[in-house]
């Protein structure tokens, strides 16, 4: 199944070279349909399957769902609505996946590199085939950032707050309001400031307790610190350093082509690239749950830079070579995601052929 999915992605990626935008838009809509259907029919496959599935079918009224000890209120309410109206987890998965992928692609649907964004999603987040509540929060942050780039500040704040009702860590995306007015180099300094703000907040919460933070957040922070160690990986740091250098070099070469949203996405991605290893090495590997709201902008930043820096300037044969290169890069990213948790993703079971394996 994954090979078939990769083949479809690669085929549509080549349409990036097609000058007519209407072809790319139609192809993007088709890919959204394929991804949504594939995710909707999966069974016992993907991240946190059991907890999400069992919560959906827990039943009872709204108060019963809201009283559940885990998950944010927005996610609880959505589960209650879909269970009460449809009673089908597959329909819920369809709606969740559709929302996650559509909210992202909606921000770049008119861009010539829109199909490259699907390739980045394939490598960065397993093609959005296995969305979680955090994935929905990230997609809402994308929509909020898009509104922020249009100077629609009220919509930005409301959408990010809504995202926090699906995953509370989304609140860190409010920093994008300040990122908007920073230069690329200032963003590097700003990312270090965010890191020390996080570090200071953790210290105050764990050592003194802060009344402005809900008990659940204090408990969650303590849980992450006590159960997930710091992590140092030469490979991870080298790979992120390489992406950082490429992004810094490319952004100044193509800055005349970039609109406000593309530039905001690149700056957010740079901040995430710096925050991610700092969190892993000095706090806890699980604190990448915070930096992911910035690193996720890779699916806009890298395709935009790649298209404007390479494809837009090249002849057709040379552009095809570079398309193979970026496909290989994200195919490798997908593979490394896969081999880290093979029991979650293989075999890809569906509602038509489930063997009812043990899952978690």
Protein model, in words:
The two termini are 22 Å apart. Helix 7 packs across helix 16 and helix 14 packs antiparallel against helix 15. The mean pLDDT is 87. Helices cover 69% and strands 0% of the residues. The chain has helices at residues 2-14, 21-40, 49-56, 62-66, 73-85, 89-105, 114-124, 133-149, 153-164, 176-179, 184-207, 215-227, 234-254, 260-282, 288-295, 298-309, 316-340, 342-345.
Helix content: 55-70%
Percentage of residues in strands? under 5%
Major sheet summary line: none
The secondary-structure class comes to mainly alpha
Short description:
This protein is mainly alpha-helical and 360 residues long.
Please supply descriptive tags for the structure shown above.
360 residues, mainly alpha
Architecture blueprint of SSEs:
Blueprint: H1 2-14, H2 21-40, H3 49-56, H4 62-66, H5 73-85, H6 89-105, H7 114-124, H8 133-149, H9 153-164, H10 176-179, H11 184-207, H12 215-227, H13 234-254, H14 260-282, H15 288-295, H16 298-309, H17 316-340, H18 342-345
């Amino acid at each position: 199944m994954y090979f078939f999915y990769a083949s479809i992605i690669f085929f549509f990626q080549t349409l990036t070279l097609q000058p007519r935008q209407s072809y790319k838009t139609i192809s993007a809509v088709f890919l959204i349909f394929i991804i949504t259907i594939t995710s909707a029919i999966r069974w016992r496959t993907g991240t946190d399957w059991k907890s999400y599935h069992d919560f959906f079918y827990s039943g009872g009224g709204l108060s019963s769902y809201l009283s559940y000890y885990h998950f944010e209120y927005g996610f609880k309410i959505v589960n209650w609505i879909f269970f009460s109206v449809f009673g089908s987890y597959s329909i819920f998965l369809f709606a969740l996946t559709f929302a996650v992928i559509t909210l992202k692609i909606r921000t770049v649907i008119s861009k010539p590199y829109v199909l490259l964004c699907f390739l980045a999603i394939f490598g960065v987040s397993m093609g959005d085939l296995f969305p979680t509540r955090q994935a929905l929060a990230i997609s809402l942050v994308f929509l909020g950032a898009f509104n922020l780039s249009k100077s629609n500040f009220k919509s930005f704040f409301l959408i990010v707050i809504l995202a926090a009702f699906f995953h509370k860590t989304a609140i860190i995306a409010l920093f994008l309001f300040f990122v908007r007015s920073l230069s690329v180099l200032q963003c590097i300094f700003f990312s270090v400031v965010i890191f020390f703000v996080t570090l200071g907040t953790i210290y105050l919460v764990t050592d003194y307790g802060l009344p402005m933070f809900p008990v659940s957040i204090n408990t969650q922070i303590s849980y992450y610190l006590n159960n997930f160690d710091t992590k140092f990986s030469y490979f991870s740091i080298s790979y992120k350093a390489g992406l950082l250098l490429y992004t810094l070099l490319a952004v100044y070469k193509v800055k005349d082509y970039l609109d406000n949203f593309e530039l905001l996405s690149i700056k957010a991605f740079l901040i995430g690239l710096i925050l991610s290893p700092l969190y892993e090495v000095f706090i806890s590997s699980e604190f990448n749950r915070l930096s992911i709201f910035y690193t996720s902008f890779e699916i806009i930043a890298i395709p935009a830079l790649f298209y404007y820096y390479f494809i837009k300037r090249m002849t057709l044969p040379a552009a095809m070579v570079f398309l193979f290169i970026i496909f290989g890069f994200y195919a490798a990213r997908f593979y490394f995601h896969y081999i880290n948790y093979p029991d979650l993703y293989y075999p890809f079971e569906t509602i038509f052929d489930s063997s009812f394996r043990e899952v978690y």
